[in-house]
Amino acid sequence: MSPALETVLAKAGLQVTPDEFLSLVSDAAKRLAPPHPDPASYFTPDQAEALTDVGLDLTPARPQDAKPRARTVVAHAVLRDSALTVAEAARQLQVDTSRIRHRLGVGRLVGWKDKGSWRLPAWQFAGGGVLPGLETVLSAVPVDQPALVVAAFMTTAQEDLLVDGKPATPREWLLAGGDPRRVADLAAMLGTPV
């Protein structure tokens, strides 16, 4: 396998072999719908706007442009690979796995089921705990928003959140000591027309 791919994976902090990563990409590609000339047509206007607001490109694909689909597949594979299992989250937070499941159930952590097992996006963890202000933010997220949309929002720079004069992701804002209510106000708008 390519040493360049091994280097990229190592620099990104992804603890998989190139073959495992390519398998994840292949699995994600199989789960996605076949290429469609207008991806926005799969969604209601409100859903399309929410997805666009968190950084997804829903512009129609041109026959010669396979990159948007490839970028989506790779982003999905990286998000899935970097997510923690319930056991990994429990070890990181030094709690029993039942506490992680409880937190998922009451909305104090976010995750999704993958082949029957919970996956928890890594963005919500920091050091040996959870992201500062996480509960405040998650309590504001509309219940109909999937974990993947929330992950995209939390890792996409927002013009309303400045750190050192530059737009920051909600995660960066919270890690820098920003007020979680500012992020919660933005998160509450997920899925609503602007």
UniProtKB/TrEMBL annotation:
This is DNA-binding protein. The lineage of its organism: Bacteria, Bacillati, Actinomycetota, Actinomycetes, Pseudonocardiales. GO terms for molecular function: DNA binding. Keywords: DNA-binding. It comes from the Bacteria. It comes from Lentzea tibetensis.
